[in-house]
Amino acid sequence: MKLIYPGSFDPITYGHLDIIKRAAAFSEKIYIAVMVNSSKVPMFSADERVEMIRQSLVELDNVEVITFNGLLVDLFNLYDIHAIIKGLRAISDFEYEFQMAQMNREMNLKAETLFMMTAPQYGYLSSSLVREIHRFGGNIHEFVPSVVEEAMNKKREE
Ligand code: COA
């Protein structure tokens, strides 16, 4: 089975990596798609996000990182994908994810979505919280890989 894991990954966190590693264990291939979420203004460029994801996942050989500035469902026609994989953190994620899963399938019948429960230790984590904690000098070491922490320190210095 080939899966696609979409997100804005601004930046990738241990919560995302947990889902990717667990899904990689039962799938043939996972495309990690750095997508545009039109309601968010990103801190990192798409290329920077791709590079951080690649460096965080060097040990997995069935993962490929791509970027796409369009509809997620259109990737089903470009790649041989069986399903979207997403993580659910809390009940609050459900409504939004339910809406997106249904809309994606409305647009493309092939676009099935599979959900995995986020590991409990990452249930409270989000990329924007990591950015905020870092901006105010908090410690993000336990939330993101060192490559991300270093890139965030560099951005702050700039
Ligand atoms: N552990 C920890 N945090 C997690 C997580 C996990 N397992 N899974 C998600 N998160 C966090 C993300 O970091 C993100 O945090 P933020 O809001 O602070 O940035 C938040 O949860 C929401 O994640 P997600 O629901 O994946 O949103 P996203 O913005 O990362 O991605 C897209 C949304 C890009 C997948 C969606 O906008 C999209 O598909 N866009 C393409 C255009 C399109 O097809 N639109 C039509 C959709 S019907």
Short description:
Helix content is 41%, strand content 20%. The chain has 158 residues and is α/β, with parallel strands linked by helices. It is globular and about 45 Å long.
Describe this structure in words.
With 158 residues, the chain is an alpha/beta fold. Helix content is 41%, strand content 20%. The protein has helices at residues 14-24, 46-56, 75-78, 91-107, 127-135, 146-157; strands at 2-7, 29-35, 63-68, 83-88, 112-117. A five-stranded parallel beta sheet has the order 3-2-1-4-5, with helices on both faces. The radius of gyration is 15 Å and the shape is globular. The protein starts with a strand and ends with a helix. The relative contact order is 0.21. The mean pLDDT is 95. Residues 6-8, 10, 13, 15-16, 19, 35-37, 40, 71-72, 87, 89, 100, 103-104, 118, 122, 125-128 line the site of coenzyme A. The site of coenzyme A has 25 residues, from strand 1, helix 1, helix 4 and helix 5.
> How big is the Rg?
15 Å
Helix content: 40-55%
- Stretches where pLDDT is under 50 for at least 5 consecutive residues are none
Structural class by sheet pairing and helices: alpha/beta
- Output the number of helix runs: 6
Number of strand segments: 5
